[in-house]
């Protein structure tokens, strides 16, 4: 079993073998996971990124600390995949490191961190996600908005209402959907519901 993991890791070095990522991800044998963890230090960032994603898909508690460490990788693709990988684990230990990743220089990493926090659903992250609603990148704002809707903390309502006036339509749509999840209403009918009805 371990030999096939080593083979697949070598295959990752071939740009035409992207599908191998998913094959690795369905494994959860401790020995195989150990090999994947070792591959997180591979000199090829494409390998490190693929392995970070695959480790998350194993949903193994043993992978969490290693994925947290991968959030510090010099390569932004590796950091992004580590953030997504942590989302798959749904482990609350990842909350703090993902919060710090909200300040990453790469918008892709910030986006992955923002959405991953929504999948982990740790209540203590709400204030940080509210702050991220002001991120300069609209995709990051959308990720934070979606997560606030998933977590469902009423303290996010005022900030989400303000986002209904965002200059990017995608943010407005996701904000309206998040407000509906939170059960927010203005007078007798939800302003969020009216907005969604208008654009659909």
TrEMBL record:
<dbReference type="InterPro" id="IPR004155">
    <property type="entry name" value="PBS_lyase_HEAT"/>
</dbReference>
<dbReference type="GO" id="GO:0016829">
    <property type="term" value="F:lyase activity"/>
</dbReference>
<dbReference type="InterPro" id="IPR011989">
    <property type="entry name" value="ARM-like"/>
</dbReference>
<dbReference type="InterPro" id="IPR016024">
    <property type="entry name" value="ARM-type_fold"/>
</dbReference>
<protein>
    <submittedName>
        <fullName>PBS lyase HEAT domain protein repeat-containing protein</fullName>
    </submittedName>
</protein>
<dbReference type="Pfam" id="PF13646">
    <property type="entry name" value="HEAT_2"/>
</dbReference>
<keyword id="KW-0456">Lyase</keyword>
<dbReference type="GO" id="GO:0016491">
    <property type="term" value="F:oxidoreductase activity"/>
</dbReference>
């Amino acid at each position: 079993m371990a030999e096939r993991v080593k083979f697949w890791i070598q295959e990752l070095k071939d740009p035409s073998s992207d599908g191998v990522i998913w094959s690795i991800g369905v494994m959860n044998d401790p020995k195989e996971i150990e090999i994947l963890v070792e591959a997180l230090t591979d000199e090829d960032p494409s390998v490190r990124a693929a392995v970070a994603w695959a480790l998350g898909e194993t949903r193994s508690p043993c992978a969490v600390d290693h994925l947290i460490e991968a959030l510090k990788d010099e390569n932004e693709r590796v950091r992004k995949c580590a953030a997504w990988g942590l989302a798959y684990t749904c482990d609350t230990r990842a909350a703090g490191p993902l919060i710090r990743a909200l300040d990453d220089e790469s918008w892709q990493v910030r986006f992955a961190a923002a959405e991953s926090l929504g999948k982990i659903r740790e209540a203590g992250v709400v204030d940080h996600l509210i702050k991220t609603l002001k991120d300069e990148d609209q995709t990051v704002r959308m990720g934070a908005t979606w997560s606030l809707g998933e977590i469902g903390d009423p303290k996010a309502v005022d900030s989400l209402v303000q986002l209904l006036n965002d200059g990017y339509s995608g943010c407005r749509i996701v904000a309206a959907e998040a407000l509906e999840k939170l059960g927010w209403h203005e007078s007798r009918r939800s302003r969020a519901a009216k907005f969604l009805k208008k654009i659909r």
